[in-house]
Amino acid sequence: MQRARCGLRPARSNPASTRAVGVMQAASASGSSTATLVFIIGDRYIVAMALAIGIALFLLTVLGMEGFAYVMHRWVMHGPGWCLHASHHRPRTGCWEWNDLYAAIFAIPSIVLLLGGVQLGWWPGATWIGAGIAAYGAIYFGFHDVIVHERLGRHVLPRSSYMKRIVQAHRLHHAIGTRRGAVSFGFLWAPPPARLKAELQRRGRKAPPARPENADVAR
Prior knowledge:
With 219 residues, this protein is mainly α. It has one domain. The chain is 62% helix and 0% strand. The chain contains eight helices and no strands. The chain has helices at residues 2-7, 15-30, 33-77, 82-85, 101-118, 125-148, 161-173, 193-202.
């Protein structure tokens, strides 16, 4: 019974002091080192499980954000939010465009969750979910702003078939400069470019010529 109480100490207490107190209680109750060893193994198991659950939450959040981004891009940005997103389908003058406000808007949940999980004592999973949102934002920035739109002024050559596919798919998305009629609304997943070109042709739209580094993607 004494060991059971050791394992149920408050989660917000200092882990090091909790372990020390638990070891002392277990040792004094049993008078042997066996109880101490069992407690340490159990404590490490709980920490390992918490870490595994956190990493799973992080990865699921990154994957889930792609679905969220697709919905927002297709039905909000190309819907009532077109007033901001339209700037992204037009030639940009200067370093910024109205569409950049979406990055600030989508960063708010990540900031709130990280602040709550790290500083305010919220459920620990909030930290992992907030980190997952932030990680997706970083991946999106690297793909969308750095590689596709070259907003840092550097041309990055996509080499893998996956990168060539999603880069060309996003360029096909930008073949349409209006609110309606665009294809491929995902960022980290996209249908084959050949299918997107066929869909554009079916809609009476003309696909832009492929860049040299992407010329073999649709084959």
